[in-house]
Amino acid sequence: MDCEVENIKPYNGDEHKSSQIERMFNSIAPAYDVMNFAMTLGLDRCWRRKAVKLLGHAHHVLDIACGTGDMAMELCRGLHPASLTAIDLSDGMLARARQKFSSGKYADIVKFEKCDCSSMPYADASFDTITASFGVRNFENLLECYREMYRVITPGGKLCIIELSEPVNRVVLPLFKFYTRCIIPLTGRIVSSDKRAYSYLPESIAAVPQRSDMIDIIEKAGFRNGVFYPLTFGVCTIYIAEK
After folding, report:
1. Has residue 184 got a pLDDT over 90?
2. What is the DSSP string of 181-211?
3. What is the DSSP letter of 120?
4. How confident is the model over 120-130, as pLDDT tens digits?
5. In which element (H, E) is residue 162 found?
6. CA-closest candidate to residue 234, choices 183, 180, 166, 178
């Protein structure tokens, strides 16, 4: 299955999308937390908390595309798992995440690793919960990555995806497009040295499968009982499914 978003890359050239994504996030890692707050007006924290409440409980968690560790922190606070493995392609993002967890009560249960989720080194059925926050837009092959998640999750385990999406409301959509396509790239050029990174963002949001289309791909990978929850006029969507 070829998704439009898989062909949207941060930069020009023939370099694989995953390599470009790694380079982009290494570049913007120092400004990422500031830009993430600015892009979502701080709502990303509410969205993560909502996702954690929907999960309800977890024992062994895998957090994919963990970034600077915000979702890992929310999972620890809300679910108190026995272990949490957080993976990302970017060394720069992982360094920031490790710094956040270098001290404190969660340091002993969280492990950060550099890993491509399309081919993970974990045994079958290693985790009862898998999360990915604002990362699936960046996957080079969406279906392949979901199939790999299906492999490493336990029977009955839960998958939780948080992703930005375009609102369907005809009043909100023009405002959303103006904000993501004009304000965010401008702010990104001011805050970050990578001028292209925050132009890639609205392009990938527009191209990523959304709502029922995303559920279709998740279930094609083997998951079942997929549901989605639109948040904040539909600018963010949470997807939940189980093995």
Report:
1. no
2. IIIHHHHHHHH-S-TTHHHHHHHHHHHS--T
3. -
4. 999 999 999 99
5. strand 153-164
6. 166
